[in-house]
Amino acid sequence: MDKEWSEKNKKMQTLISKEATFSEGINLLLELRSSLFEQITSIVKTFPSTAFWQMPFGSGDGNHNATLAWSLWHLFRIEDIVAHALILNDKQILFKNSWLKKTKSPIVTTGNELDGEAMLEFSKKLSVKALYEYCKAVMDSTNEFLKGLQFSDLKRKFSEEDKERLAASECVSAEESASWLIDFWVGKNVKGLIQMPFSRHWIMHVEAMRRIKNKLCQEAKRNC
Question: Fewer CB within a 10 Å sphere, N or C end of the chain?
Answer without folding.
Answer: C
